[in-house]
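Let us practice reading a record.
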Amino acid sequence: MSEVGHTVEGMNHGEQLPLWGDTADEPAGVPPRRALDETRPAEASVAEASVAQPSARAAHWTDAVGVFDLETTGVDVTSDRIVTAHVGLLGPDGSARSARSWLSDPGVEIPEGATAVHGITTEHARRHGRPAAEVVAEVVGALRELFAAGVPVVAYNAPYDFSLLKYEALRHGVAPILDPTPVIDPLVLDKAHDRYRKGKRTLEVVAAHYAVPLVGAHDAAADAIAAGRVAQALARRFGLAARVHELHTQQIGWARTQAESLTEYFIRVGRLDPTDAVDGSWPIR
């Protein structure tokens, strides 16, 4: 997850999704160095983990949210590569119901600046990571399963993670997710509902503002889980009761408006040429 500058409504309970691995509620998430082949498959499904019985179907999208985050070699979505990834499912109290983490050998050198952020060196990724093509295919597959079941996927600064995953998929011959739906982006929601609050909007800052613990920032699992809990906290704080697909559509408009406002500011302070503009496409570019 990179920031510029990174329940189930409509769930089809007949859709069987594997519980991807350990289900313990780990506040800091699953360490990024735990490769996929170290996870332990389970018999249950994501749908079964979300609600005990079909008759108890949740009435609000926050009752079960998917979470997604990437740590990468850089911030260029078209050319940088995945180093670690996490896809999971949170219950209504923010507890981790299922989790899957990956460590990839990106096939390129990991710059020192990126290592300083997420802690993964080129040597470590080459020694312990799995082939990038396999990791990309499995991340895409895990996300497709959540979307197919109608589970909203939370990603902080969603256009970064989903766009970089798209270009990685194209690079490795994997069919990309071109229209991720439904997506919840706490960055967009926070800006839309607390527009005039001063200060940074990084995940660490926003998580602290909503009293969501974030231990081990820039660990893909820790960031993904914290972002999911921030989304749930935002829903409680601002009464976000819209149906999840309606909320997805609202975020498209909010992201566009936020980009227009940021463009005006950057032009005013000289950071952008008057003919340039911040891309407001959401949740993917």
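A brief commentary: Strands lie at 65-72, 82-90, 96-105, 130-131, 153-154, 183-184.
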